[in-house]
Give the backbone structure.
Amino acid sequence: MREVVFDTETTGFDPAEGHRLVEIGCLELVHLVPTGRTFHTYLDPQRDVPADAARVHGLTTEFLSGKPLFSQKAQEFLDFIADSPLVIHNAAFDMKFINAELVAHGFPPVPFERAVDTLLMARRQFPGAPASLDALCKRFNIDNSRRDKHGALLDSELLAEVYLELRGGRQPGLVLSNAPYSGMVGGETASPRTYREPRPHAPTPEEVEAHQNFVRNMVKEALWLQHDKS
């Protein structure tokens, strides 16, 4: 099963107010495993980047000036995502922006039904708990130390790991391994087992004689006793 993890950065919160995309990042998953295929581009929004937005993602008007226009990258983006489900954190935000750009440039919108919203998944699994990407990385012990600012491709990479955990995570107990026993049981270190000498199981001559006397007194005509007399 192919899925595409998808993230964007923008100049603001609402395309209806004239805000534009400034970065798109996509990462391909096949059976929940990253394949190494990605799509990434910065975009010239053809407008200024407000200081508040630049503080979030670090992309300034000067940096983005001269980068490709969305119209120049739209078909490449559509070819990459093809008809795969899109894994998005807060899908309503990113889908709103990508579809506003697509429609404005004469492309059909991406159906919202294709979005797999990890924000909603997290809220269902952990009601009342923080569900931001950073909070989920912390919950699942995912290293997000590189994320000093938001970035579409980096966030897609982190989201791919979060998505795997939300889907059930890696299950090491089901992985076959030739590695020696590590002393781990259910994620905890098991108590070391103490060595015990083998128990002697063979009966002593006295025990054999006592057993034979018991049988003779219990069953006088036992076949095995007649066999012993022959």
